[in-house]
Design brief:
By secondary structure, this protein is mainly beta. The protein has helices spanning 2-13, 49-52, 68-75, and strands spanning 39-44, 100-107, 110-115, 121-125, 141-150, 159-167, 172-173, 180-181, 186-195, 201-210, 219-228.
Length: 243
């Protein structure tokens, strides 16, 4: 009994924090990056060609787990009918558009992604950033964090991926033929970089869309981009509802 009381007293005296008092918090954002996502990247389309490289046919919704409400919206769609040519360029669908990306650090805690297709900009916030109050937008509000595949150490290089969570989205289309997502949609993305056999780099983005209004389950796609040497092929064009 006496020994148990001694152990309990020791445990109660221990500090509740996980790191020693006065130590610096672990780095986040640019300082903690396990991979370099910056530079110019171009889409590699090896699947879903008929949905991504040409205008999808009306009524062709294969692969999207749509609710009855979503089917009703999609069946009423016509190119340009709603007058918003950018509805298929929101965060849930933007990286499915054939395009080039330009990724840069806006500051040490903010990663920026620009697309030449649709001239869109996404902002990924690290740290304790909180979304300001305001209307829902095409790209929503995104928070980011690094996920390490193995702990870094003195002789172990950093290795990991970027997780991005996006909410506060304006309603839009998952595909250009009117497959909808609602303002209740939330997007989770995982960005990984892998080497290619020809000494290049591949950016792999796994996108998970949750939408209780228009999806009966998660909609998951994987998009691939090849790194380019520079921005010489960068060619911004406006959104298109008909292409």
């Amino acid at each position: 009994m006496y020994m148990r009381r001694q152990i309990a007293a020791i445990l109660l005296a221990l500090p509740l924090c996980a790191q020693p008092p006065g130590s610096a918090p672990p780095p986040v954002g640019k300082a903690a990056a396990p991979v370099d996502l910056t530079g110019y990247w171009v889409s590699i389309v090896t699947e879903d060609w008929r949905y991504r490289m040409v205008m999808p046919a009306a009524g062709d919704y294969q692969g999207v787990p749509m609710t009855a409400a979503a089917l009703k919206v999609a069946r009423e769609w016509a190119p340009g009918k709603d007058g918003d040519s950018c509805k298929a360029y929101g965060a849930p669908a933007l990286l499915r558009v054939p395009e080039r990306l330009h990724i840069t650090w806006q500051d040490d805690q903010t990663l920026r992604m620009d697309t030449d297709a649709g001239k869109q900009t996404r902002i990924f916030h690290f740290g304790d950033w909180k979304a300001p109050a305001g209307p829902h937008t095409l790209q929503g509000d995104s928070t980011a964090q690094w996920e390490f595949h193995r702990p870094p150490g003195p002789s172990i290089p950093r290795n990991g991926s970027l997780k991005v969570s996006t909410a506060n989205l304006k309603a839009g289309y998952l595909r250009k033929n009117g497959v909808p997502y609602s303002e209740n949609a939330r997007v989770t993305e995982y960005l990984d970089v892998a080497p290619t056999p020809a000494d290049g780099e591949l950016l792999v983005v796994t996108t998970v869309v949750d939408d209780p209004t228009y999806l009966v389950r998660r909609f998951i796609v994987s998009s691939h981009f090849k790194k380019e040497r520079d921005g010489s092929k960068w060619s911004p064009i406006p959104c298109s509802a008909r292409w």
